[in-house]
Inverse folding.
């Protein structure tokens, strides 16, 4: 697998035409996607896989992350093909910048995969740090004032967060007491020996890890880099970051949470998840209502969804965790759909303001259909899977007795739904009656990734008897 | 001087430079205190290696010496020379108050970490807090970068005192600090080119 990455990176460095670089990347990603599907089958039968002397460890939880990473990167790369081609033709960027773009995306992709497959907790941290490094340039890609500000904020805030996370990991290793030093960084080893942890230092360590890596995940109040970062980045990058990276940071926190859960007396840690989840929900719900920039709207919606997933993990129990994992899957796919559609709208209208866009149903009919479907999928309308995941989390909240959290959750879901429907009407259906609206030519291009994403959404929502359900159940069992 | 006194002496130097850094306004002075602070950290690494006889301390000392005392200040000096700035004219928190703030932070941190295993941890945490005040309390992007590097120094102090991590991973961690500093330097260059200054309050806030 590493050889494919090496080929892709070398191609960006040496080839001259962007078209070939892009095609090689797409091909490479497709191959890796097939390999991942193979591994999924294997894990389904054997429950886990470890290689290279326990440095690489895969179980159902990692496989879900791997699937999200490969599928969405594949779609984002297909989208970038036309996106970069347009930018090059209109002479907004130079050839070298475009090559750097692909180079950084591949490094980003590799780092993300590395986080989900490694067993070593410090190597996980190094890979997450590598994602910050590669996305820093990608956010500031447009090189105008707003992008640079967004990129600087992102680098500073996420680096502080990751440093705090590192302190947390160090204290965590320290609190593991006197265990076999050559194995102490392996996650599997720590899970087996969770009894010998020093309780107080483990609590401090986990809090540091939660707040530090939570900065990268977009939990409030550490989310301040998110609205700027995700709205200024080019759309395929926003899709990848929103859909995958936030999830991956939560995955890292969950790995540590699993170890913590095995130590008795530390069940209070779940209140961290619940508290920060509710805070994220409240802040994002109220911010969504007064947004005038549709990409910032999507960014705040990411904060809200991460809050939902965190709430699900905190509430716990088989229903809650199943709901959280299902939600992370459906959020990844629907958020990518929305960001890619918004990318198309942006390339047509060249503005991010909602009030300058009207009557999308006439000017860009295909895109507006996807926009409507995406909004329905994100806000949790049946028959999409997000309805079932949010419903499960709500039910779990009530059965486990967290009435206040469940109440806040339901209230915020309603607010977000209202906010999105409001935007939907403003952008798609409103318009002056007298003016002529003609379908734009640009509507038809770059629609293939949208179709692919929507097929994924349908698959996740409807394949209830399958494979996917058992995969998520196994992963939930690991967390429990 | 007996054994423990050497280490405490070095830690005291690190602490003094840290508090000093929180109040100065001239960037050259900031960079020089950062260099001396990193030098003191490398020396304490070497001393720890000498005392415990383990080789990996020497290598970490060498790595931090090269990156933090030579390479990173070189990057900073190059950026400063391009920018032609000398001092931070209006920081968010006046120097007088930031001295008091760091002093309070030192006292509070020492109180909370009374029963920490050794003094390195407390010094490291103080550096973390001071770095944080630098980032929050200043407007120029380059002081924010130096504040972040101070935080990294603090993290390294905490790390070497507590655990035994394999050598490859520790060196990769130090290298990532270097790459981050490089990226920040490049971004400061771009910011300067686009905004004509590196005062971060000139950033427009697109919160409409």
């Amino acid at each position: 697998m590493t050889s494919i990455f090496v080929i892709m990176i070398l191609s960006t460095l040496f080839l001259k035409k962007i078209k070939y670089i892009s095609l090689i990347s797409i091909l490479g990603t497709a191959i890796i996607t097939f390999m991942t599907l193979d591994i999924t089958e294997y894990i389904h039968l054997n429950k886990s896989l470890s290689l290279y002397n326990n440095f690489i460890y895969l179980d159902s939880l990692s496989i879900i992350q791997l699937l999200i990473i490969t599928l969405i990167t594949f779609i984002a790369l297909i989208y970038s093909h036309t996106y970069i081609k347009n930018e090059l033709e209109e002479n907004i960027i130079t050839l070298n910048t475009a090559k750097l773009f692909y180079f950084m995306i591949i490094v980003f992709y590799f780092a993300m995969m590395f986080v989900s497959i490694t067993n070593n907790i410090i190597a996980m941290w190094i890979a997450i740090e590598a994602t910050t490094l590669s996305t820093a340039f990608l956010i500031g890609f447009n090189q105008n004032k707003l992008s640079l500000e967004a990129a600087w904020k992102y680098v500073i805030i996420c680096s502080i967060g990751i440093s705090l996370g590192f302190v947390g990991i160090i204290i965590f290793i320290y609190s593991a007491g006197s265990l076999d030093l050559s194995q102490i960084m392996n996650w599997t080893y720590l899970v087996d020996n969770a009894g010998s942890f020093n309780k107080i230092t483990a609590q401090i360590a986990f809090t540091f890890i939660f707040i530090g890596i939570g900065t990268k995940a977009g939990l409030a109040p550490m989310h301040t880099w998110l609205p700027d970062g995700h709205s200024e980045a080019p759309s395929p990058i926003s899709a990848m970051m929103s859909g995958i990276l936030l999830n991956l940071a939560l995955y890292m926190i969950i790995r540590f949470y699993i170890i913590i859960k095995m130590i008795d007396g530390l069940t209070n840690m779940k209140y961290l998840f619940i508290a920060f989840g509710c805070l994220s929900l409240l802040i994002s719900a109220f911010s969504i209502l007064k947004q005038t920039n549709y990409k910032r709207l999507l960014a705040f919606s990411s904060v809200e969804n991460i809050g939902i997933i965190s709430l699900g993990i905190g509430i716990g129990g088989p229903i809650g965790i199943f709901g959280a994992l299902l939600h992370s899957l459906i959020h990844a796919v629907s958020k990518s759909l929305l960001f890619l559609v918004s990318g198309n709208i942006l390339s047509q209208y060249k503005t991010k303001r909602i009030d300058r866009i009207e009557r999308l149903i006439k000017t860009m009919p295909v895109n507006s259909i996807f926009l409507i479907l995406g909004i329905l999928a994100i806000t949790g309308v049946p028959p999409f899977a997000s309805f079932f995941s949010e419903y499960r989390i709500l039910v779990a909240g009530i059965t486990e007795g967290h009435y206040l959290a469940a109440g806040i959750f339901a209230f915020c879901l309603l607010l977000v739904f209202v906010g999105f429907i409001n935007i939907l009407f403003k952008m798609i259906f409103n318009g002056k009656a007298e003016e002529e609206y003609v379908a734009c030519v640009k509507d038809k291009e770059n629609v293939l990734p949208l179709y692919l994403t929507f097929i994924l959404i349908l698959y996740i929502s409807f394949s209830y008897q399958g494979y996917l359900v058992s995969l998520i159940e196994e992963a939930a069992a690991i967390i429990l | 001087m007996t054994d423990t006194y050497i280490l405490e002496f070095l830690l005291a130097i690190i602490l003094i430079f840290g508090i000093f850094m929180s109040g100065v306004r001239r960037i050259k002075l900031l960079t020089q205190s950062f260099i001396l602070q990193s030098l003191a950290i490398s020396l304490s690494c070497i001393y720890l290696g000498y005392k415990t006889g383990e080789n990996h301390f020497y290598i970490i000392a060498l790595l931090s010496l090269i990156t933090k005392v030579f390479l990173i200040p070189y990057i900073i000096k190059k950026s400063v020379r391009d920018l032609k700035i000398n001092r931070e004219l209006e920081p968010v928190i006046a120097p007088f108050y930031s001295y008091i703030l760091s002093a309070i932070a030192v006292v509070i941190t020492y109180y909370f970490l009374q029963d920490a295993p050794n003094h390195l941890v407390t010094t490291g945490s103080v550096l973390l807090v001071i770095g944080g005040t630098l980032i929050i309390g200043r407007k120029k992007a380059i002081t924010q970068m130096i504040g972040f590097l101070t935080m990294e120094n603090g993290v390294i102090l905490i790390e070497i005192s507590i655990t035994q991590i394999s050598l490859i991973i520790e060196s990769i961690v130090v290298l990532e600090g270097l790459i981050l500093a490089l990226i920040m330097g490049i971004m400061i260059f771009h910011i300067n080119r686009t905004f004509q200054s590196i005062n971060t309050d000139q950033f427009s806030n697109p919160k409409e």
Q: What stands out?
A: The longest helix of chain B spans residues 55-83. Chain B has a mean pLDDT of 75.
